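Researcher: Go.
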Amino acid sequence: MLKLDTVNKILIIRLSSLGDILLTTPLIRSIKNKYPHLQVDFLLKDRYGDVLKYNPNIRNLFSINSEEDGSIDEISSNNYDLIIDLQNNFRSKKILRRFKTKPTPHIVKFKKLDYKKFLLVNFKINMLKEASPIPVRYAQTFGSNILDEKGLEIFLPEQIKSVLNSDDNYIGFAPGSRHFTKMWPKEFYIYLAKILLRRGFKVVLFGGKDDKTTCEEITKAVPGSINLCNDDHILQVAADMKKCKVVVCNDSGLMHTACAVGTPVLAFFGSTVKEFGFTPYKNKNLILENNSLSCRPCSHIGRSRCPKKHFKCMMELTPEITFNKLNQLLNT
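Model: Structure:
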């Protein structure tokens, strides 16, 4: 066991993706709060650099294009006392093999519980009932109970201003996801948007490059909605989400983005379940899921189609049910 009084420099590795990186922020903050003398550096993929770019708890933020990036050798020369590998896959292992400095840094790795996830997905044997949320499990790699009671965070520079007014009734929609089975149907978002507009709310659409078609189709079907889908400018998304009363979203990185700015979320969990640990962390939320199905979860990351071909995990979460639950969230 590494003694913390021998540690001065820490490197945290979490290469991707958006939500996973945001979920590291409670650990980063808590380390600096409890051990302010420690230098905390962070390594991630280039495309996610803005997520932590302005985080004051990080001394050096390193971004790379791939595991073969030449800058890794320079990063490894920083003589880290401790490396926390929160990625813990073939990519991070490939990077760690290039850390050949002497003395060799102490390395701790995130326990992914893959075997338990496999049992739950394939045999519906649930050994994850007592599993902690991902930020708590990330913190356990550090070896001490250091987490504070705060949630996720993303820091916005002064030049990033929201295009939304502060006093309007905005409801955000983040309809995208990397996987079909994690997406509430587009037609349902359209139906819900029309209900909200009739009741005096303003609907704002959020997404990145991969969500543009979906957001455009919703906007076209819902005159009066505001399409703020952009080219993956996450800081602008965060600034605009901050103006919303609630963000309606799928189990996705933008769900965690809304949480990071303190905006309540109503989130749909289709093929995935809360036991995997990626629920909204220490933020006002309401999760909608269909607990009547024996086929859930069918994946721990999502699928391109429903293996049962009925997609009841999402189709039975109707816009009417969602509107009623959204009202509950707005009024609590």
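Model: The radius of gyration is 21 Å.
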